[in-house]
Task: inverse folding
């Protein structure tokens, strides 16, 4: 892909973000774009960074590790895929944010490793808002209780919530998942838990980010809209 084509994709993305935000009286500056780089080669990621991308997301620790060697700390790294507990050590060496904390056990493993390296890990709690068995995440009904346990762990800070909507053709069908996550954000905020912030709602991908923004997303995770269809 030529640089001009990637730049054009980014320009189109920013315009769509601005339109979606304006429809509900929000500013596009309220929405952070995380460029998801699963299967994307390093040279293309470098082009995106030169074009203004400052946050990138990766689904797998092993793939991120290879790219991190080339790209380093010039961007903020987000772990957006399922994280196994045996990969926590390496994940914390790479990622600035782990968006996919889907169990108290995983949160505990992150806490223990972060304390061992004298750092505080920023994490999001992932919620399964669609009810699909194939999806990871806390069930909506168990999220508040989980947050109450996780907030007691040293070495990590909950910064927000994340969800992956159902993969359907009509983006409107995903809206209920985003509404649900926003409602859960309000419930957790009302608890006033220490070390738990819910300022960030990470929801929306290439197929549905406009609906997500209309429902309060402050962070969207897009790959195809920037890099084109995956090879």
Result:
């Amino acid at each position: 892909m030529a640089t001009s084509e990637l730049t054009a994709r980014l320009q189109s993305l920013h315009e769509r973000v601005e339109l979606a935000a304006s429809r509900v009286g929000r500013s596009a500056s309220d929405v952070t774009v995380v460029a998801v780089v699963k299967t994307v080669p390093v040279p293309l990621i470098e082009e995106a960074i030169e074009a203004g991308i400052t946050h990138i997301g990766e689904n797998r620790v092993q793939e991120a590790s290879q790219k991190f060697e080339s790209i380093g700390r010039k961007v903020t790294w987000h772990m957006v895929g399922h994280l196994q507990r045996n990969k926590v050590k390496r994940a914390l060496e790479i990622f600035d944010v782990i968006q996919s904390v889907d169990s108290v056990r995983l949160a505990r493993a992150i806490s223990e490793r972060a304390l061992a390296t004298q750092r505080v890990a920023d994490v999001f709690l992932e919620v399964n808002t669609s009810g699909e068995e194939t999806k990871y995440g806390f069930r909506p009904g168990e999220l508040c209780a989980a947050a109450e346990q996780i907030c007691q762990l040293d070495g990590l800070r909950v910064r927000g919530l994340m969800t992956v909507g159902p993969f359907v053709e009509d983006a409107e069908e995903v809206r209920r998942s985003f509404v649900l996550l926003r409602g859960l954000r309000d419930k957790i905020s009302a608890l006033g838990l220490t070390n738990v912030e819910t300022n960030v709602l990470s929801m929306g991908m290439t197929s549905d980010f406009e609906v997500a923004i209309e429902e309060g997303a402050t962070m969207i995770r897009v790959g195809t809209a920037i890099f084109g269809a995956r090879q």
In short: The longest strand covers residues 156-163.
